Amino acid sequence: MPRDNISAVYRLKVPPAMAAHRAQTLALEQSVEMPAEAVTDLRVLDEVLARVERIEPQADGTSLAHLRLACETVCEDAGQLMNMLFGNCSLQPDVELVDIELPPSLAQSFGGPNIGIDGLRRLTDVHGRPLTCSALKPIGSTVDQLAGLCRTFAQAGIDIIKDDHGWANQRSAPFAERVTACQQAMREANGASGRRAVYAPSLYGTQVQMQRQIELARTHGVGAVLIAPLICGVATFNALKREHPDLAFIAHPAFGGASRIAPSVLLGKLFRLFGADAVIFPNHGGRFTYPAEICQDIARSNRAPWHGLRPTMPVPAGGMSVERVTEIKREYGADTMLLIGGSLLIARERLAERSRAFVEAVAAPGEVAA
Amino acid sequence: MPRDNISAVYRLKVPPAMAAHRAQTLALEQSVEMPAEAVTDLRVLDEVLARVERIEPQADGTSLAHLRLACETVCEDAGQLMNMLFGNCSLQPDVELVDIELPPSLAQSFGGPNIGIDGLRRLTDVHGRPLTCSALKPIGSTVDQLAGLCRTFAQAGIDIIKDDHGWANQRSAPFAERVTACQQAMREANGASGRRAVYAPSLYGTQVQMQRQIELARTHGVGAVLIAPLICGVATFNALKREHPDLAFIAHPAFGGASRIAPSVLLGKLFRLFGADAVIFPNHGGRFTYPAEICQDIARSNRAPWHGLRPTMPVPAGGMSVERVTEIKREYGADTMLLIGGSLLIARERLAERSRAFVEAVAAPGEVAA
């Protein structure tokens, strides 16, 4: 097998005595997908067949199998990378993908974030503290209601105001009208405040549809968008990111319930690899049940040096509240975006006040993790 | 809530006393995604907020929650349907999507299979018995090797010869060269045999790339393609299917490991809804562990009358062998495609013979389920 290849680590939930055999069948499944005895071409056996590098028994009775997959199977295509890493074995419940590593050339060909953490800071002109983010909810609202929300959030000093990920082209607020009105509200609010709050509309549909949505949004000056890579397909996400190298992409984890890819791999590494400038993930203690350690792993994978790819901004979210801002800042540090949605909106007529409280809590000096 | 809406049934893995509360938070998560108290617009509360219809305690201690979701949230977009059914709650491990039902108008707007079971029979001119299918393996093979395989399989009488789902644009056999050579081999074999064996190349990448691949394939007379809807995104799949209403789409389950969507929903109903003419699924007793009952549920959902959508051809696969043909025929009946790959190729120099044995076993008279 050539030197430049992909490493993938899988947790095997089989008795330790079975681990070596299971790893071997996994290597077949994720490469030639046929018995090795049936392969007649020696080059394929030597260079294409995935290889079991080593197996590490774990204290909990599972085993970690380290596999090497040939780069030539991936064709620098994002969907194909997912296919080779977890296509068929996603259907086998005794396998979990727990880590990946790529050769630098493959990482560079996907390219990672367009602007990353630094770019999001330049875009919003926010330095030395976490960014703040809120969401336009609920779906079913009218364009006027959403533009009003934009104005309230922007005036309160929130940095990024994103569509809820449930927004597509609903008749109560079709994409074109929504984007026009919300971006106009942002422009006015920014004009008055001298700040650079950013509106990020949610993309939906196919690559061609998303392309049109981005073009429309750009004519209004939109500089960031929300995208759900597991719904639209990672190849579409990666292609759009390449076509718009100055645009920020905020990745939403919806449909990420392929629960047997470790979140630090899927949201931490793969989303970054394909180009997320910011990755929203379900923080611990909210509506979702990821433990703190997994959340920290995601943030670490988003920001760690990796083949020269820009760092991605982690966005702990999912039922966060103003009351938890200090704790989240302490945990995740400054290179973080704090996203609070429903917990602001529940203030109803005191929304502006509560949004300002959010902004002030994030801006407040105090202990911030390195 | 208006009459025309989507029903979704979720299994809740919480203590029965918690089920009502859990169902209510699920209804919020999958619609307005904020506390109901924070919703100020009465229309949204009345028409957009998902509704818990009823909760059925189960013998195993779980509960089934029947929810109604508003059609207006889906915008007739396939990705958005996945998002509203299982976007955020896919990240919550106590929730499994176990059934769905749609209003006829929404089902018709997605459209289901282009040609379905009847069309695949017309395409291949095979009636009254299951279809046979094999795969071009392994990735890493050359174009000549693959064209040779096509010839052997077609001469042996196999009906559909598909690319392995690991094929993209690998340098050993790039898409354009592979499709040209394989389709040419099929044409020659069909010319000699008077049969109508079909080659189905595997699509990869984005909608725009797949569109180009389809156009290229069509110029060579290709009439069927293989697609992995969970990798390319269901919106892309559905859009391609609409743009090519005479083309057969064979759906591959790769990356379907969102294991908390019941396979009968994901592979049985949703793949059919978005347009799979044939759905490959991991049959019991092979390399995968779906129990027989789940496999039968998939086949049933593929074929049952449903809003006038064409029935989809179920394709039990994943480590099947010639020795199991009689059993599979008995279990699934005639409106089935039998897919055997590695178990043919392992015969190596006796591949033609073993392929003929496959074809003869399928054609043999004998007990076939209704």
Written overview of the protein:
The structure is a homodimer of 370-residue chains. In chain A, the strands form three sheets. A four-stranded antiparallel beta sheet of chain A has the order 2-3-1-4. Helices cover 41% and strands 17% of the residues of chain A. Chain A has 15 helices and twelve strands. Chain A is an alpha/beta fold and 370 residues long. Chain A has helices spanning 19-29, 42-48, 78-86, 104-110, 116-124, 143-156, 175-193, 207-219, 229-232, 234-243, 263-274, 292-303, 325-332, 342-345, 351-363; strands at 5-12, 51-57, 63-70, 95-101, 131-136, 160-163, 198-200, 224-227, 248-251, 278-282, 313-317, 337-339.
Tags for this entry?
15 helices; 370 residues; 4-stranded antiparallel β-sheet; homodimer
Strand and helix map with partners:
The structure is a homodimer of 370-residue chains.
Chain A: E1 5-12, H1 19-29, H2 42-48, E2 51-57, E3 63-70, H3 78-86, E4 95-101, H4 104-110, H5 116-124, E5 131-136, H6 143-156, E6 160-163, H7 175-193, E7 198-200, H8 207-219, E8 224-227, H9 229-232, H10 234-243, E9 248-251, H11 263-274, E10 278-282, H12 292-303, E11 313-317, H13 325-332, E12 337-339, H14 342-345, H15 351-363
Parallel strand pairs in A: 5-6, 5-12, 6-7, 8-9, 9-10, 10-11
Antiparallel strand pairs in A: 1-3, 1-4, 2-3
